[in-house]
Amino acid sequence: MKLTGNLLIGANEVPASAGTMKALNPSTNQLIEPDFAFGGVVEVDMAVNLADEAFDQYSHTSLTERAAFLERIADNLDAVALPLAARAALETGLPEAQLQGEAAKAATQFRQFAEVVRKGRFLQLAIDPAQPDRQPRPRMDHRLQKIALGPVAIFGASNFPISYSVAGGDTASALAAGATVIVKAHNAHPGASEIQAKAIRKAVQDSGLPEGVFSMVRGGGNAIGEALVDHPLIKAVTFTGSEQGGMALYRRAQRRPEPIPVFTEMTSVNPTFILPRAMTARGAQIGDGFIERMLVNVGQACLKPAILIAIEGDGFDAMRAAMIKRVADAPARPMLTPGIHASYLNGLDQLQSAGARSVVEGSAAVADLDGQSALLEVDGERFLSEAALAHEVFGPAALLVKVTDQAQMLAVARALRGQLSAAMHLEEDDFELARRLLPILERRTGRIVVNAFAHPQEVSYATIHGGPFPASSDSRFTSVGMTSIERFLRPLSYQGFPDALLPEVLRDSNPFGVPRSVDGQ
Ligand code: NAP
């Protein structure tokens, strides 16, 4: 598949105005052809103006039309899945088979959102019919639907180069909502980004939609992202990445003359608690499973279980030995970018400076960007006195926190910041402790898992991939799953409208048969 390296702004291939870059193969630390264009404020302005022009038509597409468009994107992604996975593997060092799975997942997400659109429940239609005879005063007819916010900016993530990137869940849910989209492609995988963007652009053209429905820009440095967040026609932003980057963009958006929502998904250590009976019954198995999940994607996953909290006692040594073995056996694998590799090494240093002791390391790095796995440990008292120990180290490292008793386990839980997920491993005899732990975790996480680890594969109606700060900037929303569409919607009420002027879904005939509440029933 030929890559042009251009920015894709509506139907236009726009060449570089602010320099170029080449992708890096992290397995070899060598640059790969071709050159990829960087744009700046001018290109952002072009893309956002096109998105704004396209918005009225696109946001008024019928549910059937919009669902068919999303399915076209899915079909186009399927058609390029193999070259897309091959290019993504070159640019990320991740296994090609895993990336084929990601491509399939991305296509599936578009199909799932097509289904969400067809069902129409996301519109949350409500009708309060007129009551002309009501006393002491008559009531006018009120009808409510959710509408899209407007053009939105999406920052592609680095760590899942397809399913959280240009054709990831953010784009799928925003397009499903009726928003027009400008993606800021992540420079860690520019070729994979171009292939995805072209699959979406082709669907825009084949569906007869205005070109501004979708654009992809790219830039070197912060200027391009800042220009997107600052643009007055942008009405919401999504971001997956570092706490520092996410908060810089969040604060920037709040300083605009017109502040806008910024939905960031940033950092989480996904704490795992092993309760005493479970430890006795199957400590080794849990310890092994914990490290197995920790190592997925070379530890570069938002749901990576990074901290394990366990009470010293029966089963503890077997669990620790199983963790040590799994880490020691782990080969070093390339990390996504030189920056992520450097910040992994720095993060390990910081854990050790804060008092964590190194227990074991995996096989030594062979290539420059290889991440060597690491297990560190610390006792509960030290953990409670050093906030730095509760911070995420993005990469293949885990911290074992050895607590003295149940009270200290609960204190460690209370010391944690907001999380995407937390897990409890327990047996029936642990329920009493679980009942005390649960309210602490409920206040701090978006998902609580029992006798398993949080899994990123599930994309469904009950999926929550969000949580209290700093896991996300707004714990009321999720960035994955069918309800992630809600980030791009706002309620609009129509009062006293003649039927013919109402949106189709709110007319008396209800042509799409979307469920509606009438007088709250
Ligand atoms: P990042 O540095 O936060 O960058 C993410 C995206 O935002 C990139 O496109 C970046 O552009 C842009 N950006 C960041 N700060 C910006 C600013 N101040 N103004 C404008 N644009 C800005 O994240 P990353 O590159 O993916 O990885 C770095 C670190 O992020 C990792 O080491 C890890 O700690 C964290 N991370 C966490 C998760 C998670 O799910 N928990 C996922 C991915 C990454 P440029 O690339 O041009 O700078």
From TrEMBL:
Every Aldehyde dehydrogenase domain range: 17-457
InterPro entries in alphabetical order: Ald_DH/histidinol_DH, Ald_DH_C, Ald_DH_N, Aldehyde_DH_dom, Aldehyde_DH_Superfamily, ALDH_KGSADH
Keywords of the record: Oxidoreductase
Pfam families membership: Aldedh (PF00171)
Gene3D superfamilies: Aldehyde Dehydrogenase, Chain A, domain 1 (3.40.605.10), Aldehyde Dehydrogenase, Chain A, domain 2 (3.40.309.10)
Listed GO MF terms: oxidoreductase activity, acting on the aldehyde or oxo group of donors, NAD or NADP as acceptor
Name by which UniProt lists this protein: 2,5-dioxopentanoate dehydrogenase (NAD+)
